[in-house]
Amino acid sequence: YKCKVCGLEYVNLMPTMKELKSFYLNYTDFRASKLVLEKNASRNIKALSQYGLCKESHLLDFGCGKNIFVETGDSPNWWGYDEYAPFHARMINDYRSGNWDFITMWGVLEHLPAPKETVQELATHLNKGGKLALTTITTESGIPFQYKPPEHLTYWRKRAIEKLFNLAGLKILEYRAYKM
What we know:
5 helices; two-stranded antiparallel sheet; alpha/beta; single chain; about 180 residues
């Protein structure tokens, strides 16, 4: 389905949590080798440093998968959280136990069955002046994508992301096309 106002495309009916947990039990993104993920992590760390990210920052990587972003950052203040991924070093069981200077969501938004609620919840765990950074599939990016539920549940447009951030009380500081 597609929202006529903001252009967000989404799956209807959303999979259940049981279906999603079963799907992600053995999930592998065959296009994302560890080397590619490490290069993306380094590039994203550099990009966020202009907004104050440093090793002293308290960072949560939400939907961290194998936790490569946190490992690449190599900071004792950076943690990963993923409801579906097996536990790795530098991961926490409950992200709600603290407040964060930065929350990142690298390629996660499109996987969430309730993205609005998730982003609103995460925004409440940002410290004053905290930043939420994410990448997601957009239908405007020129990157070929395929509709493939239950992996991708939403497909975004800039206007939809603006609306999402506004609902969460967040301001967009930068918006650009993502390239992996």
